[in-house]
Amino acid sequence: MGSKSEDKAVFDTESAKQMVNKLRASFMAGKTKTYEWRVSQLIAMLNMLEENELQIVSALRDDLSKPELESSIYEIAMLKNSCKLALKEMKHWMKPEKAKTSLTTFPSSAEIVSEPLGVVFVISAWNYPFLLSLDPMVGAIAAGNAIVLKPSELAPASSSLLAKLVAGYLDGSCIKVVEGAVPETSALLEQKWDKIFYTGNGRVARIVMAAAAKHLTPIVLELGGKSPVIVDSGIDLKVATRRIIAGKWGCNNGQACVSPDYIITAKDYAVKLVDSFKCELQQFYGKNPLESKDLSRIVNSNHFDRLSKLLEEDKVSSKIAHGGARDETNLKIAPTILLDVPINSLIMKEEIFGPLLPIILVDNVEESFDMINSSGPKPLAAYLFTNNNKLKEKFVAEVSAGGLVVNDTTVHLAEHNLPFGGVGESGMGSYHGKFSFDAFSHKKAVLYKGFSGDSSLRYPPYTRGKLRLLQALLSGSILRIIRALLGW
Amino acid sequence: MASVEEKKAAFDAESAKEVVKELRASFASGKTKSYEWRSTQLNAMLKMMEENEPQIVAALRDDLSKPELESSIQEIAMVKNSCTVALKKMKHWMMPEKAKTSLITFPSSAEIVSEPLGVVLVISAWNYPFMLSLDPVVGAIAAGNAVVLKPSEIAPATSLLLASLVADYLDRSCVKVVEGSVPETSALLEQKWDKILYTGNARTARIVMAAASKHLTPVVLELGGKCPVIVDSDINLQVATRRIIAGKWGCNNGQACVSPDYIITTKSYAQKLVDSFICELERFYGENPLESKDLSRIVNSNHFARLSKLLDEDNVSIKIVHGGERDEAKLRIAPTILLDVPQHSLIMTEEIFGPLLPIILVQKVEDSFDVINSSGTKPLAAYLFTNNKKLKQKFVATVSAGGLVVNDTTVHLTEHTLPFGGVGNSGMGAYHGKFSFDTFSHKKAVLYRGFTCDVSVRYPPYTRGKLRLLQALISGSFLGIIRSLLGWFRS
């Protein structure tokens, strides 16, 4: 924990370089590689979360007005789960994986050894500032790396608390938090890292990847996109509606990378759907949702203005079917549903990341897939509500997204056996569960041979006989091998 | 096959855009996704190799003076093997992988679906121009993608042959070859690809990754580095020496990304090692290796000059203990061994990629690990010859490289169950076998739920009871769940 004068010192390229050097020295000393160190850090993180739940909830309330239940479940409980899983499985993850060898190297044995990459850089986002900072860190620690974490400055209370807690609970010689904004992040990006893990938007992701290219640093980019929800008829509409609401307004008020962005449904189902939304939204948030304590606010005035602009566009504002109320002082926008907005409106072009839910209409629900695929960038998630098996199959076969869920939204993130990541514009690489461990490891191939059974076939002088026998051996055809041997 | 006038038309950004557009349309039509298409393409590739082996060998002889055995075994047979493995395993690889789900989403089922990425770009290298072009293409096809291949212009005969064979045997609407050099490659790199697999050097790799970053295109970079060989005493020296020779001069005359670059051995063992090399080298290549037909030549005069410079450096030329002969007209350098060159010499700073083998001396063999790790960059491969179990363990635990081999060199490439790729400066990503399929796939998570058992605890209005129950559910603690349920019903 720095003194006031140290805090004020500028974190520039030189500071970044020093920090990386220190971490590299710690890593080279072998500190982070031991099973004991990794266990101690994960246990310390669990303690950190358990002993500071109130402060974390409070920081998230400051930064986002995030409801306690969301903070407690979607940030803290998810994190604890990641720690516990890593503690439980890590010994198994760390074990080399045996690999079968073939006739070409007989006699031999082989294995794939997981090795820490070294010193890694985690850049987090503002919407789930704890989860998106510490969840990647769990993977990096489990894989045996030293880490620098740069939390988002758009969630300053969380950033400050993270810096304090990490310094208080974790090994400061191997894990560091750097607070700051563009200058500090740029200084860090100039350094040579062994991996960079970035969560955020496509524009900054390009900057991160370009910086990584200079050092040939591998990266994971967890981005976003417009996650569509296809709603078929013949479903349990109440449950479907509730699950969509939970994934949209129940996830930081729509400010989540996997929040349902827009809905596609059939023209003749639209009214039923809108009515169901109105009913359930009232049940959840009451008659005056601007006053509800169960909704996060809009994070700041920039985003408030951005979302207002989406609503106010010509031919869009007239499509509001529910909600639309705004409170600029308190940065609140009521859950808003728009029906049948123009396809080329702003609200249908950019990722909404807020409490506005447009509904697009099609003649029949099968047309949804083409619409999604032709809309351009691949989203981080896509959702389908249906009881029609054929439709489910078509959905899975045709819609390309990071991940898909049938008959729910966003919950796939909680399943640690599923890789969580994007494709195309929604990102590259993935994590969660063992995928986190793998993301921060080098999978080193190791082949063991002895000195016996040395076949001189591969050695010069090259002869026609050797060539034929080698070709036969590689083809694996016994007949050919015999023929070649006889010929020779 | 294009006429001469068509070939002369410049392949610029506009042409590149058209190619990608065409392939994207083919991909969108679903053509490349079917098992049948993938299977026909791979079978066509096998046929292509079977029916054109002499032409391929001839092209490699033109480009590299590569010996027939090396062309046939290290290039053609390797790709045939990849096709065969893919044909055999592809149905299994294509099957979704079931994933266990937890109490949190109960009842549910989940799977991970492998999906083709779309339209991919493969940029190949000059030293194994056939293999490094088609091996990645095998993976791309097996995974259901459309492909553009850009072979290296530094191996022009092979590039031309590849263009002609691929156009004749494979599906032109989905698999294309673009010949050319920097302008053509740049034009291609400006486009949006769904993946780029680049084999080559670090300098160009930076350019490729920077170009990819503009479109957020994921990349596999297969680079190189200085692959060290640690030689312990008390081994079967003859076998060890032969295997090092095979990996060095027997692999395109040292011009291979995984060729042993330099040796580290103890001062006390050095002489024995050098003598063994001299003996085996003569056995393999005769008394006049410049004349041997079993050695590739140096690819071109640029590289010949580069290698000569390494040899001519002060304090290095005097360290030559064997070889050193050169024939500039024929681009030949004899197998050359140098003993105890200075650590900061050029030959110990850059990747050699040629028939020169420096030997570095240490006091005891355990010191080798520090020598390797202090070099700063991680190589694509590292090798150790020893019978000492503890040394093997320390090697595997301490030396970071793309891949390691104990008691041999380079052969790990032939094991398709091992991922082949680098780390740090030697690259990112991996391929071979199923790793090729995976590298050209998107692993799409899919979770299936029904409408029953809708747990309302996640819905607002948020209450303390709901919070407690959810905490218990997520922690997976049954006791906690029961306690919370009781508490909830009470309130």
TrEMBL record, chain A:
Pfam name, any one: Aldedh
Catalytic residues in the record: 222, 257
Family classification: Belongs to the aldehyde dehydrogenase family.
Keyword match Oxidoreductase: yes
Protein's name in the database: Aldehyde dehydrogenase
GO biological-process terms attached to the record: aldehyde metabolic process; response to abscisic acid; response to water deprivation
Listed GO CC annotations: cytoplasm
Presence of the UniProt keyword NAD in the record: yes
UniProt domain Aldehyde dehydrogenase: residue ranges: 12-446
Record-level Gene Ontology MF annotations: aldehyde dehydrogenase (NAD+) activity
Highest taxon in the source lineage: Eukaryota
Keywords carried by this UniProt record: NAD, Oxidoreductase
Catalytic activity: an aldehyde + NAD(+) + H2O = a carboxylate + NADH + 2 H(+)
Stored InterPro entries: Ald_DH/histidinol_DH, Ald_DH_C, Ald_DH_CS_GLU, Ald_DH_N, Aldehyde_DH_dom, Aldehyde_DH_NAD(P)
Automatic annotation (TrEMBL), chain B:
Catalytic activity, reaction form: an aldehyde + NAD(+) + H2O = a carboxylate + NADH + 2 H(+)
Domain Aldehyde dehydrogenase span(s) in chain numbering: 10-446
Entry's Gene Ontology cellular component terms: cytoplasm
Annotated InterPro entries: Ald_DH/histidinol_DH, Ald_DH_C, Ald_DH_N, Aldehyde_DH_dom, Aldehyde_DH_NAD(P)
Gene Ontology MF terms in the entry: aldehyde dehydrogenase (NAD+) activity
Active site: 222, 257
Pfam families, per the entry: Aldedh
Family to which the UniProt record says this protein belongs: Belongs to the aldehyde dehydrogenase family.
Official protein name in the record: Aldehyde dehydrogenase
Organism listed in the record: Hibiscus syriacus (Rose of Sharon)
